[in-house]
Amino acid sequence: MVERALADGDLTAAHAAVADLSVELLVDVLERLNKTDRAVLYRLLPKDQAMEVFEQLDPSLQSALVGGLQDDQVASIFADLEPDDRVELLDELPATVAAKLMRGLPYDERELTAAILGYRQGALGRRMSPEFVSLRLDMPVDRALAIVRSRLHDAETVYTLPVVDRNRILVGVVGLRELMGAPTDSVVGDIMNEPYFARATDDAEEAARRCAELKLLALIVVDSETRLVGILTVDDALGILESAESEDQARIGGTEPLRQPYLATPVGQLVRSRVVWLLVLAVGATLTVQVLEVFESTLEQAVTLALFVPLLIGTGGNTGNQAATTVTRALALDDVSPRDIGRVVVRESRVGLSLGVLLGTVAFVLASLVYDASVGAVIGLTLLTVCTLAATVGGVMPLAAKAIRADPAVFSNPFITTFVDATGLVVYFLIAKAVLGI
């Protein structure tokens, strides 16, 4: 209904169609519109509602929307964003637009934003909020409560309160519940607890995972000298993990991750996200063709062998992908690390061997019944070998990627499939020549 109204140029009908929608539904509607219609509909929203909607959009969509709005509206929206959200948007904008928006910020907001921009991409400091409430070690509880009340509307959170000394060194943390329940004549140092914290230079994904695992409302962020510089709230941590999970799943599937919702992504961008991987895999698949050429005479002497090629390379690829996916997930959860490569090799080789025995036995029986025992032996032994090899390689590749600081997902399914296809055929034909004597 909204799309039809916008296509007809009926702005009154378009406004009426979204007038009673919640922020969440408005975000869903905007994500489904093209760039021009999105900007038109956004201008129809009341100012307060428009700001809430803008904050809920992905940074890439925010960037696209900025291009369709007037300069004064963009400047107002940009100034109202939280510093960490502002930095995410700046990363998506052209440098000239980003510089112009930064110049239009009030001095204090520009300083907060610049502090976050000073950290490298992917660092925790790039995703933290510098708007927090900190308390002094020797501060009376009643004074601390007064400070918290005065910051209720501009602080990122007041439920987790870092405690610092005179040099802003982090010494503890106190929760709002403990602060409110403490005697008013006591000091903050009497009720504070040992703090959980991370360095601003730490990897943002690892810090976010730690925040989630510890079930913290906020993770305190410090610099190299343990001075308080910011906080990472649990909602921001979950956003980082969701983004990382989407990226891993995309690369495991052989595509580049989309930086905005599917329906809002231009077709050209969808093509670019997939074509590079398809070209890489196509080049890799030439190895399979070359293997078939090398063993062409073997195929001519036993044409039946060609019938089982899809089964063998498919099973090998699936086995390797299963192992790679399992180990990649274990890496993300810190269950394993590159130093565990020996243990992973042993475990995955045992798993692959067990799978090979089961699948090879079934294949031997069926192939023997349909053809003969010699063909069954070739298929059974090949599955045994290929499953063991594929599981081992599939388990090792993500660890090797992590060791060289590459994305484990990139080294997973697409490359494993190509590798196992080629080596699986070599194993297949070598076993066939040995068993069948050809």
UniProtKB/TrEMBL annotation:
Keywords: CBS domain, Cell membrane, Magnesium, Membrane, Metal-binding, Transmembrane, Transmembrane helix, Transport. The chain crosses the membrane at residues 275-295, 351-371, 377-399, 411-431. InterPro entries: CBS_dom, CBS_dom_sf, Mg_transptr_MgtE_intracell_dom, MgtE_N_sf, MgtE_transporter, SLC41_membr_dom, SLC41_membr_dom_sf. The keyword Cell membrane applies. It is found in: Cell membrane; Membrane. Gene3D superfamilies: CBS-domain, MgtE N-terminal domain-like, SLC41 divalent cation transporters, integral membrane domain. PROSITE patterns: CBS. Its main location: membrane. The keyword Cell membrane applies. Coiled coil: none annotated. It is a multi-pass membrane protein. Homodimer. Belongs to the SLC41A transporter family. This is Magnesium transporter MgtE.
